[in-house]
Amino acid sequence: MKRFAPKSGAGIWRTFLKVLRSYSMEEKVVSMILTVVVVVVGFQGLMELFRTPGLFADEGGIYTEGLVSDRATLINPVYADFSEANREISSLVFSGLSKYDPTLKNFVEDLGKLSISEDKKSYKFVIRDDVFWHDGQPLTAADVYFTYHDVIQSEEFQNPVLKANFQGVEVKQIDEKTIEFVLTSPNAFFITNLNVGILPKHLIEAVPVGELPMTNFNVQPVGTGPYKVESPLEMQGDTRQSVLLTLNDKYYGEKPKIQHIRFHVFSTSDLLLREQGTVNVIAKVPKDIVSALVDTNRFQFFNYELPQYTAVFVNMDAPVLKKEKVRIALQKAIDKDAMLRMIPNKTRVDTPMMELNQTEWLNKTNIDEAKGALFDSGYKMKTDAPEDPYRKDADGNNLTFVLLVRQLDETPSTAEEMQTLVNFLVEAWKNVGVEIDVQFETKSVFDERIRARDYDLVLAGESLGYNLDTYSFWHSSQANEN
Question: How far apart are the first and last CA of the chain?
Answer without folding.
Answer: 29
